[in-house]
Amino acid sequence: MAVRVKCKKCNREAKSDEFFLDPVYKMMVCPQCVKDRKMQEINAKKEKQKAEAEIAAEKVKKDLPPGWDSDDVEIERRYSDKLKNSAGMERIDDDRIKYTCSKCKYKFTYFTTQGRPGRCPYCATPAKV
Ligand SMILES: [Zn+2]
Ligand SMILES: [Zn+2]
Q1: What is the Å distance from ligand 1's center to 48 Cα?
Q2: Domain residues for 118?
């Protein structure tokens, strides 16, 4: 005849013949503990898959050009305009831009924080940054 005993793991009572030697806990536990452990494993797996899917989605987003959030033609056109405008400019870091004069093609470093030089040092054409 089965007697009710307290589970050492969760302190819940269960029938003694339902106790199970759990390979993970390495002790005799009640059926509820085994169930809980399996649920936790499934949830952990689901969480991991979710995190991985989020990372993958994030990566796809990064691979797309900035401002790309729909196949709207207008956005696409504006994006290519932006590319055209920034031709002759190459960002060096947060402050500096390698600028090529649109008129004489003289290359100089433009400091964005100071807004200098305002003109091409060679032909004095205003720098459009
Ligand atoms: Zn238990
Ligand atoms: Zn110039």
Answers
A1: 26
A2: 78-129
